[in-house]
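STRUCTURE:
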């Protein structure tokens, strides 16, 4: 039976690795084939087909509930109900709208919306909204967060921006939002947002600095409700009933064991409902229920059976949960603990159990964090030795009890005041540690090297005395010192990153790195911090020899602060240095300046008669082995005409579309003189500026240029000097992504 469950689980997981889903007729055939092989020794194949069919069907239904392509970018009046907990930050509120309806238009069941400058929105309200609709889409960068997969896993079929709205009905049944609002009004030493995260699983009240501290110290799991909190509460209730029965305080007519199990499970479910029943909570409730049932029936529970049944149960009810990193981290952490504490010849002392649990979990999760592209906390094993009991034993009891007693004057608020003070002390201590030891962002490694490192971590989790266990350390070090392919002498590796409506291009030679523009920043959305800096680190960039900011507009220089603070940068220059923040210490673009790195030539140009910021863009020419790339910033047709009279007006194989392909740029004179075979466009999907302009695209196509658009093809990598077609991130197909369009072939 256990073999069948494992096969069933593998079938449920399989679609996440498929480039495309099988057709519906094949999905319908799978259960029939499974029934045919079930009576034979190949019965695991039958269970696998059952799981695969169910997961594929669920994925097909989720894809069918997406916004139709014909409505992408259109503005429609939509009516629906706000669900979940809206997130209010600065001048924007983000929320989910369920049961969305519009006249004569089929809409997805659930949409995620943003309202800039809008009124407060509460859960349970009904609204009529004018929404600019968008199909689910995200930025595609090497080893980056897959926002589109996250949306699909949550059943969100569309995103959008609210232009106007009218509240039709007040909030109804939104008790979680009411609890959050009550917590926000409590004096908790400025930590009401952290209390809401701990009690409700709502992290929107935590600042970006708080999240960074939690990430650096490996304590995110303590503030976002995890199975540890659920298990602690259930265990406390069970022990209270058992203790009362032992000392004669439990009613004689009531059997204590069934009541202890029932009350413990009820407490776990109650906390789960309060927390919104995310994947870690579902896993914990399922495992606690199974362990308690086993304890009631057989007295000696089998934790691996509970783990496997919980794993399969979560996937049966939510097959798309495997697309979320939290699913893997939650189940993996529990499996590591069960593996390391089981099958030991002798028990550890309590202090050995506690200390070894922390570093063994950190060791076991390290390969998983690397493959998921997540940072690894170096201080986590030590910090959690204190932080876990601090939260579990000191903060959580008064936080939960205070929330329950909020209707009682002074008592509930007093308990929350204590919990908030304890949280404030904890955050101050964590900030000190994070400042000295930030999280490690591992460099991406080949799959074969990761497999060896994962095997090394497994060996280190084995008991002492196991043969070859010591080999785990050098195998694990492959993650720290991975084999890397260096850029050949005389070549340049170009990464045209997908940063939305902005620009960021990484140029690497054998021993040098240059960043041309740093991505956009609009309000709280900083692509430099969230996209450019993590991508550079994962690509192995340890320092920048030059950051060249074409000009000072926010879509090109907005992310510069985050990049400079996160990576050593030897020099910063810009076409408009006076308009940049003083801390960047940017020098001026010296038109005509040129240099050579590792056999690759670089040359700068700027229009001396430029009047406004776009025209001041510092243009960069990169030439490797006779193959040329021209990075043009946001120059317009007037600056292009001046460029044609300068030294860079020579044929270039690659052209970064000036001003994101706007109507005022990419003049026919420029294209005719440069005669590129390919053009790179960096822009945001459905951007408000209409980039690229249809006339410009028609001009590119009329000249036979191959068009590489970041909004459709994600990040683009080319090997300058090799005269080879580029690699686009969208070529890594996943069934939840729309296939990239096939453009014209580049002419050589």
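SEQUENCE:
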């Amino acid at each position: 039976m256990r073999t069948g469950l494992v096969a069933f689980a593998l079938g449920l997981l399989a679609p996440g690795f498929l480039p495309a889903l099988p057709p519906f007729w094949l999905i319908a055939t799978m259960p029939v084939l499974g029934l045919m092989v079930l009576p034979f020794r190949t019965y695991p194949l039958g269970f696998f087909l059952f799981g695969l069919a169910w997961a594929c069907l669920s994925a097909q239904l989720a894809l069918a509930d997406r916004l139709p392509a014909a409505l992408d970018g259109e503005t429609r009046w939509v009516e629906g109900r706000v669900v979940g907990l809206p997130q209010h930050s600065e001048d924007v509120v983000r929320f989910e709208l369920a049961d969305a309806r519009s006249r004569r238009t089929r809409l997805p069941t659930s949409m995620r919306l943003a309202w800039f400058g809008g009124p407060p929105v509460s859960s349970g309200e009904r609204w009529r909204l004018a929404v600019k609709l968008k199909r689910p889409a995200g930025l595609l960068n090497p080893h980056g967060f897959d926002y589109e997969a996250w949306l699909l896993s949550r059943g969100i079929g569309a995103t959008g921006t609210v232009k106007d709205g009218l509240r039709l009905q007040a909030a109804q049944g939104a008790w979680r939002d009411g609890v959050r609002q009550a917590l926000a009004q409590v004096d908790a030493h400025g930590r009401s947002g952290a209390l809401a995260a701990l009690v409700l699983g709502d992290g929107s009240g935590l600042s970006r600095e708080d999240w960074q501290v939690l990430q650096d110290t490996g304590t995110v799991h303590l503030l976002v409700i995890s199975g540890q909190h659920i298990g602690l509460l259930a265990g406390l209730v069970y022990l209270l009933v058992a203790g009362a029965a032992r000392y004669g305080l439990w009613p004689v007519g009531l059997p204590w064991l069934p009541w202890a199990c029932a009350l413990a499970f009820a407490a776990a479910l109650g906390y789960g409902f309060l927390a919104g029943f995310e994947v870690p909570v579902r896993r914990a409730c399922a495992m606690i229920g199974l362990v308690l049932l086993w304890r009631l029936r057989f007295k000696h529970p089998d934790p691996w059976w509970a783990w496997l049944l919980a794993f399969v149960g979560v996937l049966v009810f939510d097959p798309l949960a495997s697309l979320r990193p939290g699913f893997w981290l939650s189940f993996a952490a529990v499996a590591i603990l069960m593996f390391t504490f089981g099958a030991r010849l002798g028990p550890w002392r309590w202090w050995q159990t506690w200390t070894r649990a922390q570093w063994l979990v950190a060791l076991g999760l390290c390969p998983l964090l690397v493959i998921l592209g997540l940072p690894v906390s170096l201080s986590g094993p030590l910090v959690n030795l204190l932080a876990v009991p601090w939260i579990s034993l000191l903060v959580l009891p008064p936080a939960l009890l205070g929330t329950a007693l909020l209707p009682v004057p002074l008592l509930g608020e007093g308990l929350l005041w204590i919990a908030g003070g304890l949280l404030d002390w904890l955050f101050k201590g964590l900030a000190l540690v994070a400042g000295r030891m930030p999280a490690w962002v591992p460099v991406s490694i080949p799959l074969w090297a990761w497999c060896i490192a994962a095997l090394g971590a497994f060996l280190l989790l084995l008991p002492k005395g196991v043969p070859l266990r010591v080999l785990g350390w050098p195998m694990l070090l492959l993650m720290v010192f991975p084999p890397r392919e260096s850029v050949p002498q005389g070549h340049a590796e170009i990464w045209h990153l997908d940063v939305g409506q902005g620009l960021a291009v990484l140029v690497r030679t054998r021993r040098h790195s240059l960043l041309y523009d740093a991505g956009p920043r609009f309000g709280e959305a900083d692509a430099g911090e969230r996209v450019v800096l993590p991508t550079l680190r994962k690509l192995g960039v340890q320092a920048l020899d030059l950051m060249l900011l074409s000009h000072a507009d926010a879509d090109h220089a907005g992310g510069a602060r985050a990049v400079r603070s996160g990576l050593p940068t030897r020099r910063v220059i810009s076409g408009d240095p006076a308009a940049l923040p003083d801390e960047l210490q940017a020098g001026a673009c010296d038109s005509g300046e040129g240099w050579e790195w590792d056999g690759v030539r670089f040359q700068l140009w700027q229009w001396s008669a430029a009047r406004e910021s776009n025209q001041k863009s510092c243009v960069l020419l990169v030439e490797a082995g006779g193959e040329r790339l021209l990075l043009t910033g946001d120059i317009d047709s007037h600056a292009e005409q001046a460029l044609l009279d300068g030294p860079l007006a020579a044929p270039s194989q690659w052209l970064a579309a000036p001003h994101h392909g706007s109507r005022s740029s990419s003049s026919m004179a420029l294209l005719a003189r440069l005669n590129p075979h390919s053009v790179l466009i960096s822009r945001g999907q459905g951007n408000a500026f209409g980039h690229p302009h249809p006339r410009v695209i028609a001009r590119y196509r009329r000249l036979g240029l191959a068009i590489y658009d970041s909004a459709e093809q994600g990040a683009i990598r080319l090997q300058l000097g090799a005269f080879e077609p580029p690699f686009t991130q969208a070529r890594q197909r996943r069934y939840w992504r729309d296939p990239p369009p096939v453009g014209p072939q580049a002419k050589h």
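REMARK: Residues 743-748 have pLDDT under 50 and may be disordered.
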